[in-house]
Every structure is written in structure tokens, then in C-alpha cells.
């Protein structure tokens, strides 16, 4: 939906220093552009790690974002709770919404049932992005969250598992 | 695999570290280590990770080490916490932070919940063996790996641990603290986070 160059350019403009990630087939395609923009890509082994790494980076003065698939959001639970709510660290995340645009690979994918209720349960201010024309919504939400020093997310509709 | 550890006293082991720690070092402590570390005094660059998400101290320490490459970052972590986030050892060695020291305090039990055995400790395993954390660390790519079984060894070897080129993994066999409770949060989290960030800029 969005190109790696678009996303990398936005991150660079916002002063993002690190992208902490476990890729999926959509988000992983952004990696070369993110690295080309001089933003450090940090690959973690599970998504729960990503929040703690990002928390440490933020405490140390860096500006990280977390980039994961919605399945990784489910895995993130306790770590996300600790970093965003116990410690109130304003970590922004980009979450790939598996099967939202196409369920050909995984008919009846239950990620469609649980992703948005999970984000709501974790009280994360998110924007659902389903069209390429919504890139400005992505940019505005990221910029607003950073300006206000609060956590937030964009939920990016994807077409493949 | 190796035999069950006998174990040095946890508080004395940490007091030894506190005495050697440089003023610019960051120390991240969690769970039982945090409880004991707090009894030894306070420091603006102590990140008492209470409340925590169990297992995530190594990951948070990695983030700090990468953001503050001029400082040594020491993470005090239990064996139960290590088991809960073993992948973080791989993430750490992928990034190769030369300034990160992971101190794994192995007592073989989940101490603060009543000393139930961990699946890595000798008493928690049908074979009665013990997971070889040093082997795990080496296999993950830690090049500086240390093991201390007694307080006297730790007192002699600690300087070498701190001076080693990281990422560094040090395993300490420690004795469980009988009847030990979980650590109590030393204050409001948001306030502590802001004070810690300010100290990183100032110290």
C-alpha cells in the first residue's frame, strides 16, 4: 500500500533513529529503504522484545518506532503493557493487519476478529489505514503522537499472509 | 549440562558489584536482583526495572546500551528471567554492543513466588542436570563469557568482567534467599523515568 521510500522519508522527517522490527511480507519490503535513509534497523527475535528494546532506546535519548505484524501484537502483550502503560513511554508502532484486504491464503483468518479489540483493550490510539491515499493520515498521526509525547499506532491493511 | 550450583550470597555478590561500578555506569535490575540492589543504596543511573515485564530487562538494557554507547550498561537478571527471553541473547549478539554486560544470577528457582524450580535448574529437571547457560551464551555469539561459583572468585574476577569487550555474559551461581518477596516499586514510574533520562543527560 505504501512504498518503503514513502515510509522511510516520513520516519527520517520525524527524526526516527531506530526501527525495531519483526517483519512480515509487507513490512519487510520496507527494510532497504529504511536503511538507505540512515535509520538503524534492529531485528528482534520476538515482538515482546521489541517494546523493551524500544523502551531502552527511548530512555537513552533515541527515537524508535516498533514495526510488527498483528500476530506480533498478540505476542507483545505483557511487554507492551509494561512499556506503554507502567512506564508511560511514548513508543509509536506500525502494525500490519494480516488478511484485511485478501483472505485467499487464510480464509477466516482470526486476526480479523481480534486485532482491533486487542488494540482497544491496550488503549492504544490507532488509525486504520486501508487505502494508499491515506498516507497523510499515517504522517499526521505519527507527527501528532510525537508532538504530544504519547504512544500511538497505525494499523496497516495487508493483503497476504 | 552440569551439576546444581551451590551458590554465593546474592546480596554480597551485588554489594561487590556496587563497590566496583563506575559512576557513569547504568545498572538495570529486575525481580529479586532489584529487591536486593535497592537495599544497597541508590544511584541516579540505576534503572530499577520494577514494575517490569519478566524477562525484558536484557532487551531494555540492549536499547539503553545502543542509545548510550559511551556508557557501560550492566543488566542484573535472574535465570528464570533469562529463560523467559532467551531470544534476547541472540538479538544482543546480532547488535554486538561492546558496552553491555549481562550478569545472570542463577539460583535455579523462581525465588519471589516461593522458590519453585525453573525448568532450567537442576531440581526442575527430570534428569537432575542444569541448563548450561554459558554454552547457550557462547552459542548465541557472546565472546566474553564468565562463570563464578563462589563470592571470593567473583571479587577477584569482577574487574575483568567489567573491562571485557562486550557484549559480555557473566553467570553467577547464587543461593536462593529463603522467604524472599518480590521487589517493591521505589516510586511513581513516570517520575522515575523522567529523572533517569535527566540523569543520563547530566551525569
Give your account of this protein's structure.
The complex is a heterodimer of chains A (161) and B (203). Chain A is 44% helix and 19% strand. By secondary structure, chain A is of the alpha/beta class. Chain A has one domain (4-157): 3-Layer(aba) Sandwich (Rossmann fold), CATH 3.40.50. A six-stranded parallel sheet of chain A has the order 2-1-3-4-6-5, sandwiched between helices. Chain A is globular and about 45 Å long. The mean pLDDT of chain A is 97. Chain B is an alpha/beta fold and 203 residues long. Chain B has one domain (10-202): Thiamin diphosphate (ThDP)-binding fold, Pyr/PP domains (Rossmann fold). Chain B contains eight helices and eight strands. Chain B has helices at 10-20, 31-39, 57-67, 79-84, 87-95, 133-140, 151-163, 189-202, and strands at residues 26-29, 46-48, 73-78, 100-106, 109-110, 116-117, 144-148, 168-173. Chain B has a six-stranded parallel sheet with strand order 2-1-3-4-8-7, sandwiched between helices. A two-stranded antiparallel ribbon of chain B has the order 5-6. In chain B, strand 5 (109-110) and strand 6 (116-117) form a beta hairpin. The radius of gyration of chain B is 16 Å and the shape is globular. The mean pLDDT of chain B is 95. The interface between A and B is medium-sized, with 31 and 32 residues.
Summarize the structure.
The complex is a heterodimer of chains A (161) and B (203). Chain A has helices spanning 4-13, 31-36, 47-59, 70-86, 111-121, 135-148; strands at residues 18-21, 40-43, 64-69, 92-97, 126-129, 152-157.
- Distance N to C terminus of chain A: 15 Å
Total DSSP E strands of chain A? 6
**Radius of gyration of chain A in whole Å, from Cα?**
14 Å
Report the mean per-residue pLDDT of chain A as an integer.
97
The total strand number of chain B stands at 8
Quaternary organisation of the protein chains: heterodimer
What's the CATH class label of chain A? Answer: Alpha Beta
CATH architecture title of chain B: 3-Layer(aba) Sandwich
CATH topology of chain A: Rossmann fold
Biggest β-sheet of chain A: count, sense, barrel? 6 strands, parallel
* Overall pLDDT level of chain B: 95
Assign an overall shape of chain B.
globular
CATH class of chain B equals Alpha Beta
Low-confidence spans of chain B: none
Amino acid at each position: 500500500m505504501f512504498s518503503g521510500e514513502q515510509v522511510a522519508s516520513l520516519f527520517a522527517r520525524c527524526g526516527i533513529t531506530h526501527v525495531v522490527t519483526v517483519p512480515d511480507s509487507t513490512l519487510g519490503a520496507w527494510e532497504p529503504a529504511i536503511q538507505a535513509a540512515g535509520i538503524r534497523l534492529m531485528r528482534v527475535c520476538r515482538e515482546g522484545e521489541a517494546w523493551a528494546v524500544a523502551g531502552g532506546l527511548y530512555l537513552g535519548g533515541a527515537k524508535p518506532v516498533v514495526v510488527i505484524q498483528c500476530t506480533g501484537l498478540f505476542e507483545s502483550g505483557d511487554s507492551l503493557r509494561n512499556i506503554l502503560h507502567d512506564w508511560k513511554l511514548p513508543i509509536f508502532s506500525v502494525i500490519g493487519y494480516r488478511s484485511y484486504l485478501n483472505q485467499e491464503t487464510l480464509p477466516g483468518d482470526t486476526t480479523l476478529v481480534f486485532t482491533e479489540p486487542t488494540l482497544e483493550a491496550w488503549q492504544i490510539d490507532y488509525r486504520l489505514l486501508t487505502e494508499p491515499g491515506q498516507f497523510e493520515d499515517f504522517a499526521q498521526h505519527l507527527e501528532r503522537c510525537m508532538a504530544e509525547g504519547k504512544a500511538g499506532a497505525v494499523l496497516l491493511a495487508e493483503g497476504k499472509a | 549440562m552440569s551439576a546444581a550450583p551451590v551458590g554465593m550470597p546474592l546480596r554480597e555478590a551485588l554489594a561487590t558489584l556496587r563497590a566496583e561500578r563506575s559512576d557513569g555506569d547504568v545498572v538495570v535490575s529486575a525481580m529479586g536482583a532489584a529487591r536486593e540492589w535497592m537495599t544497597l543504596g541508590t544511584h541516579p543511573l540505576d534503572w530499577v526495572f520494577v514494575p517490569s515485564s519478566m524477562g525484558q530487562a536484557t532487551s531494555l538494557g540492549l536499547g539503553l546500551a545502543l542509545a548510550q554507547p559511551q556508557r557501560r550498561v550492566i543488566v542484573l537478571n535472574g535465570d528464570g528471567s533469562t529463560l523467559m527471553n532467551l531470544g534476547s541473547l541472540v538479538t544482543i549478539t546480532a547488535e554486538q554492543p561492546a558496552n553491555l554486560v549481562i550478569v545472570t544470577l542463577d539460583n535455579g528457582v523462581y525465588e519471589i513466588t516461593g522458590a519453585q524450580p525453573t525448568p532450567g535448574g537442576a531440581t526442575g529437571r527430570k534428569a537432575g542436570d542444569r541448563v548450561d547457560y554459558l554454552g547457550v551464551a557462547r552459542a548465541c555469539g557472546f565472546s566474553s563469557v564468565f562463570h563464578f561459583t563462589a563470592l571470593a572468585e567473583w571479587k577477584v574476577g569482577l574487574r575483568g568482567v567489567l573491562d571485557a569487550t562486550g557484549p559480555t555474559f557473566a553467570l553467577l551461581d547464587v543461593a536462593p534467599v529463603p522467604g524472599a518477596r518480590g521487589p517493591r516499586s521505589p516510586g511513581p514510574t513516570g517520575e522515575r523515568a523522567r529523572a533517569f533520562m535527566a540523569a543520563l543527560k547530566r551525569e
